[in-house]
Design brief:
Blueprint: H1 2-84, E1 95-96, E2 102-103
Antiparallel strand pairs: 1-2
Length: about 120
């Protein structure tokens, strides 16, 4: 009986190894197919996006001088504004009056803010 068990195990061992190697081959083939599918998907997406990317880059080239001018001219004014204000969370949303003036009110619950000292004028 013991010999029959060993003989049966010896006969079945190559078949189980073959099945495992076939499974491993199928898994590897499945991963390579998934990889190929992902590559095709990304190539398709890139080919669809290419005109938009080119258009966006030309738009950037057109807008760059305007943004440079805006930064040069408005930069100092914005820096001065942010030095005058403290944390923006302490302010209400801007309100536009009928005459076009814009008011930015400080929130009533905001802590007391001591802004920059007023410049002294020598007389």
């Amino acid at each position: 009986m013991k010999h029959a068990l060993i003989l049966t195990a010896a006969l079945l061992l190559p078949f189980s190894a073959t099945a495992q190697s076939e499974e491993s081959g199928e898994i590897d083939e499945g991963f390579s197919l998934i990889e190929e599918g992902a590559k095709l998907l990304f190539r398709g997406i890139l080919s669809e996006m290419e005109p938009a990317i080119e258009e966006f880059s030309t738009l950037g080239e057109e807008v760059a001088p305007t943004l440079q001018m805006l930064a040069t001219e408005m930069g100092p004014a914005l820096i001065e504004l942010f030095e005058t204000l403290d944390d923006l969370r302490h302010y209400e949303p801007p309100e536009i009056l009928p005459n076009g003036d814009v008011i930015i009110r400080r929130s009533p619950s905001a802590p007391v803010f001591e802004g920059p000292a007023a410049p002294t004028i020598d007389l």
